[in-house]
Design goal:
Layout lengths: L6 H12 L13 H8 L8 H22 L5 E6 L11 H10 L5 E4 L9 H18 L2 E4 L12 H7 L10 E2 L6 E4 L5 E4 L19 H13 L6 E4 L7 H6 L3 H10 L4 E4 L6 E5 L2 E5 L9 E8 L2 E8 L6 H22 L8 H15 L5 H9 L1 H8 L6 H10 L7 E4 L9
Parallel strand pairs: 1-2, 2-3, 6-7, 7-8, 8-10
Antiparallel strand pairs: 1-11, 4-5, 5-6, 9-10, 11-12, 12-13
């Protein structure tokens, strides 16, 4: 939902217009370069310190009013990621399912890799999704980029301009180096929407991502500016936990430390194409799956008085043709992965060994790994075949590690709301 046109909503709209970031201020139909020039100070730094101070003062007042006026109902957000939209992969069934699921939600958060190759026609498909969700449900839509959403000559500046109606233009604070921004919702939740890409000069983004030092400082400034008790929902495309993510994603460790320091307990991300959770030192990271892939679920976050409630929600009837197709496609993928890994081993023609891997893969994809189910697969004679093979791929170690150390259930988690002050 949008900020109501009270005196504060009107003032906020005027402030946005003065910064030349509203739709009326930018020539949206112009070519990208001309539109950027027409926007003038859209991402410029002239007078930035003054505007920063003004925005911070304004958000303090606005948040207090919103939190006082909130009607006490639980605010809810639908979370999706990694659509990888492209020509021939418009995912119409998933789009309809997401629109249906969004009807009872306040906002839909799209966490990156929304396109497959960042072509103009692919970004147009994402904007079509966002427009239809907003028009048909009344839910607001907030979008951040993933590594697949950047290409040479299409980086943070161009992304922020093209998607200004879906986050940047509604924000109370923006990072002028990345496409990161912060939005205050109607009920007083701060959505910290972070660009976790670190594109090179050609604007190509590395798969594992990265967070600029200046962006980390911006995150710190935003969190420091918020009133005590403000709930903060932090989002990015790339996982920043566990330790191996810290090691290969520049800035990931520093970001996790900043979030902890300000008591932010929940970080949502995508990138891995499956649901998973990691908890380390009071920071919960939840990775979101794809709505167009098995098990056909979306993430739901509800802001309640005692914290955030995380759940997953089925997007399809399990007897529907769409769901059965997702199930079959995922099983087929698991079979192909199994056969490919076994191809150069003594079990290259062993169908039972490939089927065993497909069954384990389905448990993982569906978020249904439990100690009991995993024990059955580990005791199977085909598991012993997998233990005996020598392979240069990571698939063997990955699936065995998942079976021996099943991930936590991500279908229902309660995370305490944020403390505001840095921890001593």
């Amino acid at each position: 939902m949008r900020i109501p046109e009270t005196i504060f909503g009107a003032a906020f709209s005027k402030l946005r217009r003065n910064k030349a970031i509203s739709e009326s201020g930018c020539a949206g139909n112009q070519p990208e370069a001309a539109a950027a020039e027409a926007c003038g100070s859209f991402r410029g730094k002239d007078g930035l310190n003054f505007v920063k101070r003004l925005l911070i003062l304004f958000v303090l007042l606005l948040t207090a009013v919103l939190m006082t006026a909130a009607d006490g109902r639980a605010e809810s957000f639908l979370i999706i990621s990694d659509l990888h939209l492209s020509k021939g992969q418009e995912h119409e069934a998933a789009r309809k399912a997401v629109i249906q699921a969004a009807r009872e939600k306040d906002a839909v958060l799209m966490l990156g890799d929304n396109t497959n190759n960042a072509h103009a026609e692919e970004h147009a498909l994402v904007l079509k999704w966002a427009k239809e969700i907003r028009q048909q449900t009344g839910a607001e839509v907030y979008i951040i980029p993933g590594n697949h959403d950047y290409r040479p000559h299409f980086g943070p500046d161009e992304f922020s301009l093209q998607y200004r109606s879906y986050g940047w233009g509604q924000s109370f604070s923006r990072d002028y180096v990345s496409a990161s921004y912060a939005v205050m919702t109607e009920n007083g939740t701060c959505l910290l929407m972070m660009d976790t890409n670190q594109p090179d000069r050609g604007q190509s983004a590395m798969p594992y991502g990265g967070i600029w030092d200046s962006t980390l400082e911006w995150v710190r400034e935003v969190l420091a500016s918020l009133p005590d008790g403000t709930p903060v929902l932090a989002c990015g495309h790339h996982p920043i936990l566990p330790q191996e993510r810290n090691d290969r994603t520049p800035g990931a460790y520093a970001l996790s430390q900043i979030l902890r320091a300000y008591g932010v307990g929940l970080y949502l991300c995508g990138h891995d194409h499956g649901f998973a959770t990691v908890e380390a030192e009071n920071l919960h990271q939840i990775t979101v799956g794809q709505p167009q892939a098995f098990p056909g679920r979306a993430g739901i976050v509800k802001q309640e008085q005692d914290g955030f409630l995380w759940q997953t929600e089925a997007l399809y009837d399990e007897q529907s043709p769409d769901f059965l197709r997702l199930q079959e496609d995922t099983y087929s993928l698991g079979r192909r992965m199994g056969r490919g890994t076994l191809a150069a081993t003594q079990y290259a023609e062993d169908e039972a060994a490939a089927e065993w891997f497909a069954s384990a893969f389905m448990l993982f994809a569906g978020g249904e790994m439990t100690p009991e189910k995993n024990a059955g697969l580990l005791a199977d004679e085909n598991c012993q075949k997998w233990r005996r093979i020598e392979t240069r791929t990571v698939v063997k170690d990955w699936i065995l590690n998942l079976l021996e150390n099943p991930p936590a259930d991500v279908r229902h988690i309660i995370i305490p709301s944020s403390r505001k002050h840095p921890m001593e």
